[in-house]
Amino acid sequence: MNSFKNIVLALVLLVVTASCFDERKPNYQYMPNMYEAVGYETYDEVNFLPANTEALTPPANTINRGWLPYEIENTPEGKELSRTNPSPLDSLQRDENLAAGKAMYDIYCTICHGAKGNGQGTLVQREKILGVPSYDDAARNITVGSTFHVVQYGLNSMGSYASQMNTTEMWQVSEYVMQLKEELTN
């Protein structure tokens, strides 16, 4: 009688396991969340964030890596104040800074300002943009600080490049612009 019960139990288990088998998915998964991703809904519908928050909002009083706050405001008075702002880059690494500044200048600035800084870039020569000044224009009276201010905030039809370059790269470009200005005036 015991053997009959064991045979019936084995047959029942065989039928149950065979009926649950699905060819599209494996029966047993060691870590199912690795096979089937959990589909989260929008952040408003998920309970793990506090109310009225956005994803990836930085904590208060934090500064992005590679970016330093620029204390001078984007006003005409701020631009005048920026003329006296010196470059914070190490003067002992001037050659490396100028080389890096030239690389960034070639990427972002040459198309309008030209490789020599004379305001004759490709877009100006094709008359797509007009009125790009030369760096040796005496009326402009540019300094390394005012150049950084313009790269940081933009001026007239030139937009800001603060989202494309970090603070060090903007200072390197500003120093390279001053070198181009010296080469144009000599």
What would you say this structure looks like, in words?
This protein has 186 residues and is mainly α. It has 2 domains: 2-45, no CATH class; 76-185, Cytochrome c-like domain (Cytochrome Bc1 Complex, Chain D, domain 2), CATH 1.10.760. The chain has helices spanning 2-20, 32-35, 76-82, 94-108, 110-113, 122-125, 144-153, 167-185. Helix 3 packs antiparallel against helix 7 (144-153) and helix 4 (94-108) crosses helix 8. The N and C termini lie far apart (112 Å). The model has no long low-confidence stretch (mean pLDDT 81).
Low-confidence stretches: none
For the record, the CATH class of the largest domain is Mainly Alpha
- Domain count, please report it: 2
Shape: elongated
Strand content: under 5%
Main sheet? none
CATH topology (fold) name of the largest domain? Cytochrome Bc1 Complex, Chain D, domain 2
Which structural category do the helix and sheet elements fall into?
A: mainly alpha
CATH architecture of the largest domain: Orthogonal Bundle
